[in-house]
Amino acid sequence: MTTFADPVPGGRPGDLRRAAALTADLTERGVAGIVLAYVDTAGIGRIKTIPTARLEAAVSWGVGMSPVFDTFLAHDSVVTTDVLGSPDGDLRLYPDLDQLVALAGQPGWAWAPVDRITQEGDRHPGCARTFLRRIVTDAADRYRLAFKAAVEIEWAVGLGSAPAGEFVPAVSGPAYGAVRQVGLTDYTADLLTACAAQGLDVDQLHPEYAPGQFEISVGARDPVAAADRSVLVRQTIRAVARRHGLRVSFAPAVSAEGVGNGGHLHLSCWRDGVNLHAGGDRRYGMTAEAESFAAGVLARLPALTAVTAPSPASYLRLKPSQWAGVFTAWGHETREAALRLITGTAGRHDQEANMEVKPVDLAANPYLALGCVIAAGLDGIAAGRVLPGEITGDPARYGPDEAAALGVRRLPRSLPEAVAEFRADPVLRAALGPVLADAVTAVRLGEAAAVDGLGPDRVAAAYRWTY
């Protein structure tokens, strides 16, 4: 459960009592410090840490951090907009006590996501977590809609002893194969134990397609909590791997060839406890609103890629016929479709039906990605959009006429192309607001310029250990 209220100087009602109780509990459990975490525009997790004894002070008055990180690139150089990127100013990080958890993978530490507000107590317009919370709150106010969301986590496990910068898979064997699971049995068992200790309900953990690649799925929550969980799960995966002498990469493309790491989004719309993706009179049980929501997302996928596939390495992953979803197409349980409708098992449709957005990777800021996808879907509801014809099989096989009839076109092939689509999209820019929208544009173009002229192998190497 997420607290859908902005932090305030002095602390929200009840937070100080909760902070005092949490401090006592964490101290008794041997937790010395708390990681205060957020994700910047480039998709990099940024943190500050405090001693556990400082939790009450952090909840009351926040912890200082510069706004300059809103325009940091993945490799820590800085770009600017008209209001961001200078050395001036300061913000306050406020931990969300609802999501604070002791880290089983990092004994002695706890973790909490933060919202960032100004020193005057106003929302910081560049805070992605605050943006997502506002989008979810507006949907509840305007449409009485709630959402359940989850983020798939794929990562590559490499040997920690490999030469610096290189990726050597920690285990080999067939995709989804038992050989791989056995090869990393201690690591994956410890990972499941750590997730359980942190209250993360894991649905699946299994080997994936690429060498050394695994995937974990956790239960759906409200979008803000789902984004928080995405960050926490990656913190846990990385920490447990280190204890086993392993190194992990969440980069979209660990190497220039082959299948990359995805971060697919799952999302469903709910009203009064009823799933709008099941029990309706539209295709595959959708209600009219659920179809319009899905159609809104589909219509804005080219512009959304600037948010969901934000790295130059993302476009090494977004290749046809590799289940990455690189065409504006939807289908029922079709894994080549960018928008996959999932109905679930008979007897569970009302709980399991959802939509999966596939052209998403883990370079994406999960708060920005979920917020923009929801904004696109809400615009679809407002416009009464309907889905075009569905596809089956691989859309790469369609000729020009058949593709045009189904509205199937290739998503952007590069980050500059994605930025051009984003700049032309008034709905996403309005949802983000001018400060955050301009930061997205500046950071994406900065990333593209940083690798201009590099071949695919060097682009993959440049971002291999960044995410």
Would you mind describing this structure in some detail?
The chain has 467 residues and is an alpha+beta fold. The protein is built from 16 helices and 16 strands. It has helices at residues 15-28, 55-61, 128-143, 178-183, 185-197, 223-243, 288-299, 301-308, 314-317, 349-352, 366-383, 400-405, 415-423, 426-432, 434-450, 456-463, and strands at 33-39, 45-51, 63-65, 91-95, 101-102, 109-118, 146-151, 153-159, 202-207, 213-218, 246-249, 265-271, 274-275, 330-332, 339-342, 354-357. Strands 1, 2, 3, 4, 5 and 6 form a six-stranded mixed beta sheet that branches. Strands 7, 12, 13, 14, 15 and 16 form a six-stranded mixed beta sheet that branches. Helix 8 packs across helix 13 (415-423) and helix 13 packs antiparallel against helix 15. The longest helix has 21 residues, at 223-243. The protein is globular and about 65 Å long. The model has no long low-confidence stretch (mean pLDDT 96).
